[in-house]
């Protein structure tokens, strides 16, 4: 495994966020800005997804593992909560019965007190007057009054216990309900994440799809290109469409011990100037191959669209014998770049 591959596998969701933030930091979007031709935005999006594929896959797998763990935890919670709810319901049933019995005993004590008072009034009014009968009736009223107070305290205690049992039973039911809801939620999330993993195209597939659009990107940019479509990547001016891919290529090459830079966008006037400097027989009609240094006819160079880069390494234009060229031949296609066979240093999205 190369350093580049290890770098791609370092992080999950945080990696995706960091990659996006990196694009914003250098003034480029990921993917390309909406002002660009739609096909350019599609190319940029495909390459972004390709180059962040491993991080996305890691993030999805990390999410899946977390979701599966949550399913197990909440399933266990359902068991515990159900058991607790059963205990709470049993206690509620017992508390309901105890409260009812205490209420009935309190009512009976009050009824007995009422009867004792009536007996006392009757004994006091009876002729001839019986002191002993009044004394007995008075004692009965006293005893009945104490019984009422005792039964009232007992009833209040059982009523409080019933309230507590109701609260506990309700909380236990809520706990079970929440646990079941969480199980359902994480089970659904797990299924969706599995689907997302299964549906995630391979990085190479995404890069290949972008490659099939490359020539159309060039064709649509020709009449619509503006300087505002460019941005800087480590001092190299390139089209925003390829900025993220180029930055990742430079970063990954550096991680593998290869330094690359180069010259990207240049104006049509500069292209004309180079045609003259490079000794082209005719600025406007002579083929590129007729120049001392191959130089495209003005209006045809992908440099004028910021979609080509003349790669240098260590401040020098690369050749086929350089470490940078050998690295590029192995990896550049992963970033959407193709070499122009006649120029080892020239890499673009079409190879032209």
Would you mind describing this structure in some detail?
- The protein is of the alpha+beta class and 352 residues long.
- It folds into 2 domains: 3-39 and 204-348, 2-Layer Sandwich (Muramoyl-pentapeptide Carboxypeptidase, domain 2); 62-199, Helix Hairpins.
- The protein has helices at residues 3-8, 13-25, 38-51, 53-125, 131-199, 203-221, 240-255, 268-277, 323-331; strands at 230-233, 236-239, 261-263, 308-313, 316-317, 338-340, 343-348.
- The strands form 2 sheets. Strands 3, 4, 5, 6 and 7 form a 5-stranded antiparallel β-sheet that branches. It has a two-stranded antiparallel ribbon with strand order 1-2.
- Helix 3 packs antiparallel against helix 6, helix 3 (38-51) runs parallel beside helix 7 and helix 4 runs antiparallel to helix 5.
- The longest helix has 73 residues, at 53-125.
- It is rod-shaped, with a radius of gyration of 43 Å.
- It holds the Pfam family VanY.
- Residues 1-34 form the signal peptide.
Short synopsis of the structure:
The protein is an alpha+beta fold. It has helices spanning 3-8, 13-25, 38-51, 53-125, 131-199, 203-221, 240-255, 268-277, 323-331; strands spanning 230-233, 236-239, 261-263, 308-313, 316-317, 338-340, 343-348.
**Number of separate helices:** 9
Helices and strands, in order, run as: HHHHHHEEHEHEEHEE
CATH class of the largest domain: Alpha Beta
Structural Rg:
43 Å
Instruction: Tell me the β content.
Output: 5-15%
**Overall body shape:** rod-shaped
Low-confidence stretches: 1-34
Structural class: alpha+beta
CATH architecture of the largest domain: 2-Layer Sandwich
Question: What's the average pLDDT?
Answer: 90
Helix content: 55-70%
- The counted number of beta strands is 7
The third-level CATH topology of the largest domain is: Muramoyl-pentapeptide Carboxypeptidase, domain 2
Distance between the ends: 31 Å
Q: How many domains is the backbone divided into?
A: 2
Keywords: Signal
Organism: Actinoplanes oblitus
Protein name: M15 family metallopeptidase
Pfam families: VanY
């Amino acid at each position: 495994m190369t350093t580049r591959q290890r770098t791609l596998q370092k992080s999950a969701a945080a990696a995706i966020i960091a990659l996006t933030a990196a694009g914003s930091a250098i003034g480029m979007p990921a993917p390309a800005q909406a002002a660009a031709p739609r096909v350019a935005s599609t190319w940029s999006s495909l390459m972004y997804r390709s180059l962040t594929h491993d991080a996305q896959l890691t993030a999805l797998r990390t999410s899946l593992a977390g979701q599966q763990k949550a399913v197990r935890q909440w399933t266990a919670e359902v068991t515990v909560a159900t058991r607790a709810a059963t205990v709470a319901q049993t206690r509620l049933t017992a508390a309901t019965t105890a409260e009812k019995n205490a209420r009935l005993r309190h009512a009976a004590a009050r009824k007995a007190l009422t009867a004792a008072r009536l007996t006392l009034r009757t004994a006091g009014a009876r002729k001839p007057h019986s002191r002993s009968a009044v004394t007995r009736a008075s004692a009965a009223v006293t005893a009945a009054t104490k019984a009422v107070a005792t039964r009232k305290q007992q009833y209040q205690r059982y009523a409080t216990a019933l309230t507590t049992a109701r609260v506990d039973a309700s909380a236990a039911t809520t706990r079970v309900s929440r646990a079941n809801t969480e199980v359902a939620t994480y089970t659904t999330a797990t299924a969706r994440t599995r689907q997302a993993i299964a549906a995630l195209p391979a990085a190479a597939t995404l890069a290949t799809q972008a490659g099939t659009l490359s020539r159309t990107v060039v064709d649509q940019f020709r009449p619509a290109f503006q300087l505002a479509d460019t941005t800087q990547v480590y001092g190299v001016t390139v089209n925003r469409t390829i900025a993220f891919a180029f930055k990742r290529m430079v970063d990954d090459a550096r991680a593998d011990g290869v330094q690359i830079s180069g010259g990207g966008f240049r104006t049509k006037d500069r292209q004309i100037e180079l045609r003259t400097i490079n000794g082209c027989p005719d600025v406007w009609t002579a083929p590129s191959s007729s120049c001392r240094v191959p130089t495209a006819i003005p209006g045809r160079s992908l440099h004028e669209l910021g979609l080509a880069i003349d790669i240098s390494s260590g401040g020098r234009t690369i050749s086929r014998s350089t470490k940078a060229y050998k690295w590029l031949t192995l990896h550049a296609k992963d970033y959407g770049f193709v070499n122009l066979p006649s120029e080892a240093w020239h890499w673009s999205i079409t190879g032209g």
